[in-house]
Amino acid sequence: MISKKLQDAINEQINAEMWSSNLYLSMSVFFAKEGFNGFASWMKHQSHEEMGHAYSMMDYMIKRGGTPVVGMINVVPTGWGSPLEVFESAYKHEVHISELIDKLVDVAAAERDKASQDFLWGFVREQVEEEATIKDIVDKLRIAGTTGIFYIDAQLGQRK
Ligand code: OFO
């Protein structure tokens, strides 16, 4: 059974994952309005993926006898200056999420909860991928000219 302290910490992370989902949905709307349909579609997939992280944490909590909380989600940003700015914000956000996950592992270790540490290491690994994927997009956008941006938009639109 999961401790109350770890349960509270995971619930905070569940809230952060749902906030991330809304953030990427907001970015998707921004892109759709700007005519970048590929970026919009990519961000919608990302939003789904973040909800998936929240679901997975909720399922885990239930298996361990805890109670996941579906709490209030704070408002997310709605306006950016350019596609590069959007992806830079997304990258910064993922770095922040990685820090939160690292801290969660520390809580699980302090609680001597091996199963939770094992579960959370999966997210530590996931964050390496998330950061790398978004950083790669940022790097490409930094060197792309106007034509390049539309090429990247078309490419990201192929995400399944
Ligand atoms: Fe974007 O990552 Fe969830 O955890």
TrEMBL record:
Q: Name one Pfam family in it.
A: Ferritin
Please tell me which top-level EC class this enzyme sits in.
Answer: oxidoreductase
Q: Which CDD domains match?
A: Nonheme_Ferritin
Q: What is its EC number?
A: 1.16.3.2
Q: Which reaction does it catalyse?
A: 4 Fe(2+) + O2 + 6 H2O = 4 iron(III) oxide-hydroxide + 12 H(+)
Cellular location(s)? Cytoplasm
By sequence similarity, the record places it as follows: Belongs to the ferritin family. Prokaryotic subfamily.
Q: What is the protein's known function?
A: Iron-storage protein.
> What is the protein's name according to its record?
Ferritin
**Species assigned in the record:** Bacteroides sedimenti
Lineage start: Bacteria, Pseudomonadati, Bacteroidota, Bacteroidia, Bacteroidales
